[in-house]
Amino acid sequence: MSTFAWADDAYLSEEKDILVIAHSSEWKPYSYIPGNGQPKGLLIDFWQAYAKYNHTSIQFMLADWSDSLAYMKEGGDRIHAGLLKSAEREAYLDYVAPIFNTNGSLYVKNQSGQVSKDPLAAGKVVGVVDGSYESWFLAEHYPDVEQKRFRRNETLFSAALDGEISALVADTQTANFYFLTQGKPLAFVAEQILYTRPIYAAVPKGNQALLKEVREGIDNIPAAELLRIKQKWVNTERVEAYPAWLIPSIVLVMLLGAVTYIFILKRMVYKRTVALRRANARLREFANTDPLTQLLNRRGLETYFTRLKPKLSRQQEMGLILIDLDHFKQVNDTYGHMQGDKVLVHLASYLKRFVKKGAAARLGGEEFCILCPTQDLDALIEMANHIRCDIAETVFEFGGADIRVTVSIGAIVSSDVVEEIKQLELDALIHAADLLMYRAKDRGRNQVMLASSQSVNTPIVEI
Fold first, then answer.
1. Which H/E stretch holds residue 169?
2. Which cofactor does it need (predicted)?
3. Is pLDDT at 3 greater than 60 in this prediction?
């Protein structure tokens, strides 16, 4: 077990107790020990910020993942820097607060031109780190899969690159880090994202005093500092699991590979074309998806609009519901942007479940929309008001506080904008709904506003 103490001299001179922070020595980029022996990573920076803003001293205890969990089972005044929740861990840990989100993905060996068979079918062998959340997740959701367990991430990814295993489940950010630093970013591809979960700080079960101290200490870290740490290690403008340089690197490597295949082996053109199509499909998915909520972004919504318009029957109209959270800045200012993000993710999850025919998208900030075929304006109104009521009745619990939010909605159908559906443009539809949404805000918020069937400029009916 490696240790490393950190604190300003001023803090040490006060002879305060040193908080012991346990974690993995090889969970890149969250915590790891490079050649100089000084711990690095997102969670290392986070706990150093904790020490700074709480005027305390900390000591890192970094070891193999299973050893870090065994250390926590011993109890006492110690903190686990960050891990995912599982039923097994709840037996000996109390979780303090979510720190950052992470994805867990299934990776399979990249075999160009070949369609991979289901790697999670019964009897398949999948590599995981022993004692990890990924191991627990597979056992819980895919009990028939045979797990090959490794003591640490280093040995897991080495086994994958050496051909010992052809599939593995790991934290997406960690997998990308290892494959890229080994110079083999395309050796394995992410077959699917299995889960998106928050990483929690934790203390030994029953240590209520330490639980309270750490919870209050985390609240003292400024939101701007949390954002700086996150942006340093994780690209927040894309899907959180992927660094900013990953997609350009993939494109560059694949283009060079295509040129090489064409120049050397013309017979490989077909196989390379198949591989490029698969990669381009993934890139299109990234480009059309909002990284925080996993809903469509504006570009993705435009693509869906283009596909939907010619499919509408003569009896159908194009309907758009524009949703904006009321006073959302107050939620961020009061509870922090991390809690605000959770509200946005919860709303996105609700919209995914609610929309049966159509598409949900996040246009930016706290603004969402639903684009769907509808029989008439009345059907769209009923749908919009159902959403408004459901959200108003939802209670979010953060740190013992109950948070309620409401939404202002503008609802409109295509005939309110143009006479012929062929002339309809998405920008015009969104703009018309946007005017209605702001009218809802001007009239007191938490309501649905719509236009008459004649024109957007006609008097607006209030629900």
1. strand 167-171
2. Mg(2+)
3. no
Question: φ, ψ for residue 327 (rounded to 5)?
Answer: 50, 40
Beta bridge partners of 62: 2, 23
**DSSP symbol at 17:** P
The secondary structure of residue 117, as a DSSP letter, is P
CB atoms within 10 A of CB 296: 21
Using CA atoms, how far apart are residues 245 and 374, in angstroms rounded to an integer?
41
CA 185 to chain centre: 21
Cα 134 to Cα 441: distance, rounded to the nearest angstrom:
45
Highest averaged pLDDT of the listed ranges 64-78, 107-121, 357-371, 442-456 = 357-371
Residue 14's SS3 state is coil
In three-state secondary structure terms, 391 is helix
Range scoring the smallest mean pLDDT among 42-56, 109-123, 317-331: 109-123
Q: Measure CA 445 to chain center.
A: 29
Q: Is 14 a catalytic residue?
A: no
Q: Residue 264 and residue 254: Cα distance in Å, rounded?
A: 15
CA atoms within 13 A on the CB side of 371: 25
Specify the length of the chain in residues. 463
pLDDT of 275: 65
Q: Which is catalytic among the residues 140, 366, 367, 420? A: 366
Q: Give the single-character DSSP code of 16.
A: P
What is this structure's pTM? 0.46
3-state secondary structure of 324: strand
The Cβ of residue 315 has, within 10 Å, a number of other Cβ atoms equal to: 8
- CA pair distance 45, 26, nearest whole angstrom: 15
